[in-house]
Every structure is written in C-alpha cells, then in structure tokens.
C-alpha cells in the first residue's frame, strides 16, 4: 500500500480566493474530512487562515488540504471573508475546528510551515496518520 500524501494547496488571500474555497467546499461536501480556522499572531496582530481537508477519491493516496493562508486580519468586526466561510460551512452542516498556530513568518520556508501544521493536525487526530 502506498503511503498517504497529505499536502496543502494554497489559494490566495483575496475575496475571490475565499469564495473559491467556499465553492470547493460546496461541491465536495461529501468529501470534507474537516474544515479549519487557524489563528496566528504576528507583531501583536491576529490573522485567520481558513482551510478544508478533503478525503481521498476512491483508493487514491492523496489527501488535499486547501487553504487561504493568513489573509484575513482579525478586526473589531468579524471579517466578511470569515463570515462567508462560516456561512458556507453552516449551509453544508460542517462545524469548523479552530486552532491557534504559529504564524508562517516564524518559519524560514512555507513548506516547513505546512509540515508544522500537518504535525499539529496529526497529533490532535484531526487528519489521518501516514499509512
């Protein structure tokens, strides 16, 4: 059996990217393993990243996690992009899991950042272990 490949697929930070992620969730609602809202801090400002982890198709060994990374600042009002994501998840009856993580700027390389998040998710049994 081939090992399970868990990989982040990064979308952008703008409105269009968030709506693309929402559409991916809508179209793949039966494949959603979990949805995530990650919070991180940089220079005393908090940012949200939103993500959807999809179960592999058929017997494939690919476990994609689509993410809009740190593009949503936490402001006094709940940001519209975050509201749109939550509304989409509510419509398809998925409860997002909120997790505090380190900001990606803490890491020298984005790949190391994503390996860190995969480790956090595995340790908390939120994504499957490697097989």
In short:
The protein is an alpha/beta fold.
Notes on the structure:
The protein is α/β, with parallel strands linked by helices and 131 residues long. It is 30% helix and 34% strand. A five-stranded mixed β-sheet has the order 1-4-3-2-5, covered by helices on one side. The chain starts with a strand and ends in an 8-residue tail after the last helix. The model has no long low-confidence stretch (mean pLDDT 93).
Please outline the helices and strands.
Elements (H helix, E strand, L loop, with lengths): L4 E7 L3 H13 L4 E11 L2 E10 L7 E12 L6 H12 L5 E4 L9 H14 L8
Parallel strand pairs: 1-4, 2-5
Antiparallel strand pairs: 2-3, 3-4
Helix pairs in contact: 1-2
What structural class do the secondary elements suggest?
alpha/beta
The major beta sheet can be summarized as: 5 strands, mixed
Give the strand tally.
5
Count of separate DSSP helical elements: 3
Chain-averaged pLDDT: 93
Low-confidence stretches: none
Main attributes?
single chain, 131 residues, alpha/beta, 3 helices, 30% helix
């Amino acid at each position: 059996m081939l090992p399970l490949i868990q990989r982040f697929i990064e979308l952008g930070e703008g409105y269009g990217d968030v709506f693309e992620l929402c559409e991916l969730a809508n179209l793949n609602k039966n494949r959603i393993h979990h949805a995530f809202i990650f919070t991180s801090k940089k220079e005393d400002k908090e940012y949200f990243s939103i993500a959807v982890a999809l179960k592999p198709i058929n017997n494939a060994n690919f476990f994609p996690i689509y993410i809009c990374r740190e593009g949503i600042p936490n402001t006094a009002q709940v940001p519209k992009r975050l509201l749109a994501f939550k509304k989409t998840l509510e419509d398809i009856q998925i409860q997002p899991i909120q997790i505090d993580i380190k900001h990606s700027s803490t890491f020298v390389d984005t790949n190391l950042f994503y390996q860190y998040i995969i480790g956090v998710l595995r340790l908390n049994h939120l994504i499957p272990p490697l097989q």
